[in-house]
Amino acid sequence: MTVFLWGVLPYVAFALLVAGLIWRHRYDRFGWTTRSSQVYESKLLNLASPVFHYGILLVLVGHLIGLFVPASWTEALGVDEHAYHLFSLYGGTAAGVLTVAGIGMLIYRRRTKAPVFRATTANDKVMYVFLLGAIVLGMVAKLSDTSGDGYDYRSTIAPWARSLFTLRPRTELMEGVPVPYLVHAVIGTVLIALVPYTRLVHMFSAPVWYLVRPYVVYRSRDPGQLGPRPDRRGWERAGS
Q1: What string of pLDDT tens digits covers the 240 residues of the chain?
Q2: Which helix (H) or strand (E) holds 214?
């Protein structure tokens, strides 16, 4: 079981991720979307969506730092283990609470707004279960031991995660890891496999080019600048 969970499952999840992305791009380009339900309700969505997206972005950044930045690097920057623990504890908890609040509002919106609920698929429900489960279990794992410097996952889970990229997973490092961390890791791994088959796929097509695109110039219709507007056609006047 140890070999399967920590030496096989991550590669299966990655294979499903890549295969799903390729399949969606080739055969379901029009389905590569969040299937926005803003047309049904926008007031609550305008609050819940930013809360969720900012929260999940902070969670992802925190995981990338925790798993792939060795302790020796942060110590070289003058951040000792205790300072890192406090930053991880309070920063990670805040990001988790923000994400859970966003998911909670999104779920509440789907349950209370009939048109939005009718547009909710079984696929969406599975995605919410795994996403919420991964976030909550991560918070439980972090808050289950806050004494001292807490559990040092950077000496076990982080080296294991990095070893996956060498194709020589160090599965023995996961033995003795607290159960909440293990469950969190399994759910997170399964969630990675589900990404291409859910609305989460849109994270791979985020319009980051908006950050560097030229400004869009809008011109005024001031008659003094552009001249008089031509008369409308008959059917336009009738409908005005």
Answers
A1: 889 999 999 999 999 999 999 998 888 877 777 777 777 778 888 888 899 999 999 999 999 999 999 988 988 888 888 888 888 889 999 999 999 999 999 999 988 888 888 878 888 889 999 999 999 999 999 888 777 778 889 999 999 999 999 999 999 999 989 999 999 999 999 999 999 988 888 887 766 555 555 655 555 555 555 555 555 554 445 454
A2: none
Count CB-CB contacts under 10 A for residue 134. Answer: 22
Token pair listed for 158:
């982080």
Question: Among all chains, which residue has been given the structure tokens 């798993």?
Answer: 67
What is the residue type of 79? Answer: V
Q: Concatenated DSSP letters for 152-212?
A: -GGGTHHHHHHHGGGT---GGGGTT--HHHHHHHHHHHHHHHHGGGSGGGGGGG--GGGGT
- The gap from C-alpha 141 to its chain's centroid, in whole angstroms, comes to 19
| Contact (CB, 8 A) for 195 and 216 | no
